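ok, trying the design again with the full structure, not the truncated one.
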C-alpha cells in the first residue's frame, strides 16, 4: 500500500510541477502589469525617442527605476521576451519577484521563452513606435510624482496594476496535492487498524507507533518532492510562486500525519469484530423510510 501511495503521489507532484511551469510561462507575458504599477503611453506623433529620454530623466530625479517589456513570437514554440531597463535594480527586482533572469525558460506545452535585457531607450522599437507600457520600481509616492511630471507633457495613463496574478491557481493545484496526501493517509490509518492494535496488545506503545509512522511519512514526502523536482528540471524550468508552493506542500504533509493520532484511540473489540460497524447502514435505512412512497 505504501508503494502504491508513493507512486501515486510522485505522479501527482510531477503534474503539479508541470502546471507550475505552464503558469510561469503565461505570467511572463504580463508579469509587469501584475506585479508593478504601470502606465501606458500612446502617441500619434513620432516623439517616442523624446518621451523615453524624458521618462528616464524624470524617473532618475524621483529615484524611481522604470522598465518596459515586449514579447516577440519567434515560432509556434518559442517566444523572445525583451526587457527594456537594463540596470542592477531592475534585474534584482525581477529576480526576487518572479525569478526572472537573462536565460531560457522551458515549459512542456507553452514552449520556450528566451529573456533578453536591453537599454530602456531601445523600447522605441516596440509597438510600432506608437505605444509603450512602462512599469515603475520604487516608493509609491515617488512613482506618483514621476507620473505627474510626465503627464504634464505626455498623454500617459495613471499608474495601476493592469493584470491579476495566478497565485490562486497555485493554491488550487498544490492544495489538491495536499488533499490527496491527507486522504491517502486516512486510508492508511484505517487499513492498519488491526495491526496497530495487535502490536499495542503485545506491549508496544501506540503513541510511539504513531510518531514513527508520522516521521517516516514526512521524510518520504520530502524525498518525493525533491525527486519530482529533479525529474522535471531535466526538461522544464520556471518556478512560479515557489515559496507559496513549498508552504502549501509542507502544510499538507503536516496535516496528512494528524490521522495517526487515531492509533492511540483504537477500540480493540471493534478492530477484531468479524462484522463491520452497522450504524451508518442503520441510519441510512431509517432515513429511507421517511421518504414518501412513489
Amino acid at each position: 500500500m505504501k508503494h502504491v501511495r508513493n507512486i501515486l503521489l510522485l505522479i501527482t507532484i510531477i503534474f503539479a510541477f508541470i502546471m507550475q511551469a505552464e503558469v510561469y510561462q503565461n505570467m511572463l507575458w504580463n508579469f509587469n502589469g501584475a506585479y508593478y504599477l504601470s502606465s501606458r503611453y500612446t502617441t500619434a506623433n513620432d516623439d517616442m525617442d523624446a518621451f523615453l529620454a524624458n521618462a528616464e530623466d524624470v524617473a532618475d530625479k524621483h529615484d524611481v527605476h522604470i522598465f518596459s517589456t515586449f514579447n516577440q513570437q519567434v515560432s509556434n514554440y518559442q517566444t523572445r521576451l525583451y526587457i527594456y531597463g537594463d540596470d542592477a535594480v531592475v534585474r534584482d527586482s525581477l529576480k526576487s519577484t518572479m525569478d526572472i533572469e537573462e536565460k531560457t525558460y522551458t515549459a512542456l506545452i507553452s514552449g520556450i521563452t528566451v529573456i533578453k535585457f536591453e537599454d530602456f531607450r531601445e523600447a522605441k522599437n516596440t509597438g510600432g513606435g506608437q505605444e509603450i507600457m512602462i512599469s515603475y520600481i520604487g516608493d509609491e509616492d515617488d512613482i506618483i510624482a514621476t507620473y505627474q511630471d510626465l503627464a504634464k507633457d505626455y498623454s500617459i495613463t495613471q499608474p495601476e496594476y493592469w493584470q491579476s496574478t495566478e497565485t490562486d491557481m497555485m493554491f488550487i493545484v498544490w492544495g489538491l496535492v495536499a488533499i490527496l496526501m491527507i486522504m491517502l493517509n486516512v486510508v492508511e490509518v484505517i487499513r492498519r487498524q488491526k495491526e496497530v492494535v495487535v502490536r499495542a496488545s503485545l506491549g508496544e506503545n501506540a503513541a510511539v507507533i504513531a510518531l514513527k509512522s508520522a516521521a517516516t511519512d514526512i521524510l518520504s514526502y520530502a524525498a518525493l518532492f525533491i525527486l519530482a523536482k529533479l525529474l522535471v528540471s531535466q526538461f522544464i524550468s520556471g518556478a512560479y510562486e515557489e515559496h507559496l508552493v513549498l508552504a502549501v506542500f509542507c502544510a499538507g504533509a503536516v496535516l496528512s500525519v494528524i490521522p495517526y493520532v487515531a492509533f492511540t484511540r483504537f477500540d480493540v473489540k471493534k478492530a477484531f469484530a468479524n462484522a463491520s460497524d452497522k450504524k451508518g447502514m442503520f441510519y441510512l435505512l431509517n432515513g429511507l423510510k421517511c421518504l414518501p412512497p412513489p
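Keeping the full-length input from now on. The chain has a mean pLDDT of 84.
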